[in-house]
Write a structure and sequence with these properties.
With 209 residues, the chain is an alpha+beta fold. It has 2 domains: 5-80, 3-Layer(aba) Sandwich (Glutaredoxin), CATH 3.40.30.10; 90-201, Up-down Bundle (Glutathione S-transferase Yfyf (Class Pi), Chain A, domain 2). It has 8 helices and 4 strands; from the N terminus they run βαβαββαααααα. It has helices spanning 14-26, 45-50, 69-80, 90-119, 128-148, 164-176, 185-195, 198-203, and strands at residues 5-8, 30-33, 58-61, 64-67. The protein has a 4-stranded mixed beta sheet with strand order 2-1-3-4, covered by helices on one side. Strand 3 (58-61) and strand 4 form a beta hairpin. Helix 1 runs parallel beside helix 3, helix 1 (14-26) crosses helix 6 (164-176) and helix 4 (90-119) packs parallel to helix 6 (164-176).
């Protein structure tokens, strides 16, 4: 029997949640160690020796230490997925990988200020003008996803793949922030499908902190 992988990171971190959700979809057994946020430890030498960035998550699989959440998701899928969650062709895999990278370069920078402003900033310290700008920017970015879903149930095509994981983590936050969201029917339909998945319910649909 293969040893459990170890995952360092708090379970309410968006990047850690990508890895937990992926493990849930693939049935990968793991031990998770609380690190980061209120738990600390991520700036101490034992952790920095594994991950010099001092960020979460980090995993250990046998002798392999790996960080960067999207890379971890790709690795786990390739090693343990048996063809699940990943397209069979180079073209299909490129489609999935593109959206994973897009989450880092485009969606993340747009939505993170919105999330921090409402979830991690006391009401009396919020910048209303900055939040309005962040909402407008985030809505315009989600419109790109909505357009993509016009002819595709999921981001890479007809099937749920790893491409849906990084964006799906943020979709939960988007739909649960106290904001007025523009009507994006395809995003709503896609999100409803994600909410039916047991691993999403377990690892993503938890209180936001």
């Amino acid at each position: 029997m293969a040893a459990k992988i170890k995952i360092w990171g708090r379970n309410d971190s968006s990047n850690v949640q990508k890895v937990l959700w992926c493990c849930g979809e693939l049935g990968i057994d793991f031990d998770r160690i609380d690190v980061g946020g209120k738990f600390g430890g991520n700036k101490e030498k034992p952790y920095l020796d594994m991950n010099p960035n001092g960020l979460v998550p980090t995993i250990e699989d046998g002798g392999l230490i790996l960080w960067e959440s999207n890379t971890i998701v790709r690795y786990l899928t390739e090693k343990y997925g048996g063809g699940k969650l990943i397209e069979a062709t180079p073209e299909g895999r490129a489609q999935a990988s593109r959206w994973m990278d897009w989450q880092l370069t485009t969606l993340g920078p747009a939505i993170v200020p919105l999330f921090w402003g409402y979830v991690r900033t006391p009401p009396e310290k919020r910048d209303a003008a900055a939040l309005k700008t962040a909402l407008e920017k985030t809505a315009s970015v989600w419109k790109i996803v909505d357009d993509r879903l016009a002819n595709n149930p999921f981001l890479a095509g007809k099937d749920f793949t790893i491409s849906d994981i990084p964006l799906g983590v943020w979709a939960y936050r988007w739909f649960n922030l106290p904001i007025e969201r523009p009507k994006l029917d395809r995003i709503s339909r896609w999100y409803e499908e994600l909410c039916k998945r047991p691993a999403y319910q377990k690892h993503i649909m938890i209180p936001m902190t």
